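Project outcomes to date are best conveyed with an example. Our students and postdoctoral researchers have been running inverse folding experiments weekly, and each run begins with a structure described purely in C-alpha cells. The record below, which covers 534 residues, was selected by the lab manager from last quarter's runs and is presented without edits.
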C-alpha cells in the first residue's frame, strides 16, 4: 500500500511523461504480481464501486477529529475533496511501515460491506489513524470510488512494456476488454505468449485528430478517403468462435443493449472484428442522438423501445478477417475486406440488415469536398472524416493519417447564473458554471460548462464570483446575472427533461464576452431557432 501511495504521489506531482513511465515501471519491477494487477486496474482508469457513502465519512470525520462540525465543514469547503480533507485532518504524521499490501487493503475495504455500521466505522477510523497522509488519501479514494490517476492508457502500456520487455502495442491490446485484477491476469499481461486469448477482447481504437489547417495542406485529395463523421456510440463488433460481442470505445461491453444488431451479427464470418458506430436509424435514415440516449444506460431493451428507436451498426473498418489481424494492412485493403464481409451478410438479409457500411464521398477537389461538407447539419452529422488510403489502423491518436474535419459549432451568448468549485487542483477555484438565456424577462438555464477559459481568466472570474454571490446552495453559488459568455456546442435537440425544453451536446466556453451586457445575451427563441435550421 505504501509503495502504491508513493507511486500515486509521484505521478500526481510531475507532468513529465518519461518520469511517469519510469515511476510506473519501477513500481512493477518490485511489486508482487497481485499488487501489480490491482495497480494496472486503477492506473487504467477502472474504479471500485463506492463502498462507504460520503455523508457517513463526513460524520465519522467530525466524531473522531475533536473539531467542531462547522470547522470540519469549512475545511472541506476550502479543500474541495473529502478524501484529502480526511487525510489532512486525521492522517498520521508518518507512514506506518507495517501496513499491508495494496491487494490486502483492497480486499479489506471490499469486505466492509458485510459489516455492521459500527464495525465499518471502527475499521475505517482505524485506517485513518494508522496511515500517513499519502496512504490515508488513497484509502479514502478507494472507499468513495473516486480514485483517478493522471496517466493515459498509452503511458501505462509503455511502463508495463518496459517492465516486460514487450512491444507496447501488445500490452495495449491485452489491456482491452474485461479482465480481473489477479495474479493470473498479471502473468498473462507480461507473458511472451498470450496463450488462450479471451475471444471477446477488442482491439485498441484508432482515433483521429482535429483538422485545423486548410485541407489543401494534406496534398492531393485523391490520396484521401472521405466519409461522414457520425454522432453515435463508437464501437467494435466482434464475432469469434460462434459468439458475438460489442464493446464501446469506453471499454464497456454493450452486447445486451443492442439485440437488434447482435442478432444480425451472429451471421458474420467467424474471426471478424469491425470498427463502427451505433446509430439510431429508422426508415427515414439517421435519427437525432437524443433518441439514442433513450437506449444508453439500459441493461436490456424492451420491444416498445426497440420499435421506437431501431439501431444500426454503421461499419467504418475491418481489423480482423478470418481470424487474422489485418490492422497493419493499408486502409484500402481493409476497406475491400469490409465491403466483402458486409455485403455477404446483407445478402442473407435482403429485407433489412442493421449492419451497414459507411458511405465514401467522391470528390475531384478539396473545393468540391468542402461544398459537400456544408450538407453536414442537414444530414445530422458532425462533418467529414479524412483517412489516408495507405494508413494502417493505428493505436490511439497518431497525427497525420486520420483527421476529423468538423463543421463549425453552434454558438450562443449566455449569462452565467451559477458557479461551483472544481475538483483536484482546482478545488479552491470556482470553475464549473451554469449558463442561461432569456425567456421573456427570465433567465432559463440551458447548459453547464467548465472548459474554455485560461488560468488568468479563471482566477479573475473566481474573484468576481466570490464578490458577487447572491445565494448559496451547498457547494453551488448563484451570482449576479451580469457576465456574458459565448458558448459553443456540437448539436441541439428538443428535450422534455430540461426546463428550457432543449438539450445541447458538448457545451464549452468559447470566450468571455466583456463587450456585452446581460440584456444583450441571446433568447430561448434564438436558441430553438437553431433546431429548425438543421
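After processing, the design step wrote out the following sequence:
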Amino acid at each position: 500500500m505504501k509503495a502504491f501511495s508513493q507511486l500515486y504521489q509521484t505521478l500526481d506531482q510531475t507532468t513529465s511523461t518519461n518520469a511517469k513511465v519510469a515511476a510506473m515501471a519501477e513500481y512493477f519491477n518490485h511489486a508482487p504480481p497481485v499488487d501489480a494487477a490491482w495497480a494496472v486496474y486503477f492506473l487504467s482508469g477502472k474504479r471500485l464501486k463506492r463502498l462507504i457513502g460520503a455523508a457517513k465519512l463526513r460524520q465519522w470525520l467530525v466524531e473522531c477529529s475533536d473539531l467542531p462540525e462547522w470547522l470540519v465543514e469549512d475545511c472541506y469547503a476550502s479543500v474541495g475533496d473529502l478524501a484529502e480533507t480526511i487525510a489532512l485532518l486525521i492522517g498520521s504524521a508518518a507512514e506506518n511501515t507495517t501496513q499491508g499490501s495494496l491487494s490486502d487493503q483492497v480486499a479489506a475495504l471490499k469486505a466492509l460491506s458485510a459489516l455492521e455500521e459500527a464495525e465499518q466505522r471502527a475499521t475505517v477510523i482505524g485506517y485513518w489513524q494508522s496511515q500517513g497522509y499519502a496512504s490515508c488519501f488513497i484509502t479514502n479514494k478507494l472507499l468513495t470510488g473516486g480514485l483517478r490517476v493522471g496517466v493515459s492508457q498509452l503511458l501505462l502500456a509503455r511502463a508495463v512494456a518496459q517492465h516486460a520487455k514487450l512491444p507496447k502495442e501488445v500490452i495495449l491490446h491485452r489491456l482491452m476488454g474485461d479482465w480481473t485484477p489477479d495474479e493470473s491476469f498479471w502473468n498473462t499481461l507480461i507473458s511472451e505468449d498470450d496463450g488462450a486469448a479471451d475471444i471477446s477482447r477488442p482491439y485498441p481504437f484508432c482515433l483521429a485528430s482535429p483538422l485545423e489547417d486548410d485541407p489543401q495542406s494534406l496534398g492531393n485529395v485523391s490520396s484521401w478517403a472521405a466519409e461522414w463523421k457520425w454522432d453515435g456510440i463508437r464501437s467494435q463488433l466482434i464475432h469469434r468462435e460462434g459468439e458475438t460481442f460489442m464493446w464501446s470505445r469506453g471499454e464497456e461491453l454493450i452486447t445486451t443493449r443492442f439485440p437488434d444488431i447482435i442478432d444480425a451479427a451472429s451471421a458474420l464470418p467467424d474471426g471478424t472484428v469491425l470498427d463502427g458506430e451505433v446509430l439510431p436509424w429508422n426508415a427515414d435514415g439517421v435519427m437525432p442522438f437524443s433518441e439514442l440516449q433513450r437506449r444508453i444506460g439500459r441493461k436490456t431493451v424492451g420491444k416498445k423501445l426497440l420499435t421506437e428507436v431501431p439501431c444500426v451498426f454503421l461499419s467504418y473498418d475491418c481489423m480482423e478477417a478470418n481470424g487474422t489481424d489485418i490492422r497493419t494492412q493499408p486502409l484500402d485493403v481493409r476497406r475491400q475486406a469490409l465491403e466483402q464481409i458486409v455485403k455477404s451478410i446483407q445478402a442473407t438479409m435482403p429485407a433489412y440488415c442493421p449492419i451497414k457500411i459507411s458511405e465514401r464521398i467522391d470528390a475531384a477537389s478539396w473545393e468540391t469536398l468542402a461544398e459537400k461538407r456544408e450538407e453536414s447539419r442537414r444530414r445530422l452529422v458532425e462533418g467529414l472524416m479524412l483517412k489516408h488510403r495507405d494508413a494502417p489502423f493505428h493505436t490511439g491518436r497518431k497525427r497525420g493519417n486520420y483527421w476529423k474535419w468538423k463543421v463549425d459549432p453552434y454558438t450562443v451568448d449566455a449569462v452565467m447564473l451559477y458557479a461551483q468549485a472544481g475538483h483536484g487542483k482546482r478545488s479552491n477555484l470556482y470553475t464549473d458554471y451554469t449558463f442561461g438565456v432569456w425567456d421573456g424577462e427570465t433567465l432559463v438555464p440551458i447548459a453547464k460548462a467548465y472548459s474554455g477559459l485560461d488560468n488568468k481568466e479563471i482566477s479573475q472570474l473566481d474573484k468576481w464570483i466570490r464578490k458577487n454571490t447572491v445565494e448559496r446552495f451547498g457547494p453551488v453559488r448563484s451570482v449576479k446575472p451580469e457576465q456574458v459568455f459565448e458558448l459553443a456546442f456540437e448539436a441541439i435537440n428538443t428535450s422534455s427533461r430540461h426546463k428550457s425544453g432543449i438539450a445541447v451536446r458538448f457545451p464549452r466556453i468559447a470566450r468571455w464576452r466583456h463587450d456585452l451586457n446581460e440584456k444583450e445575451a441571446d433568447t430561448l427563441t434564438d436558441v430553438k431557432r437553431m433546431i429548425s435550421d438543421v
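The first strand starts at residue 206 and ends at 207. Residues 2-144 form a domain with the DNA ligase i, domain 1 fold (CATH 1.10.3260.10). The training component of this project remains on track.
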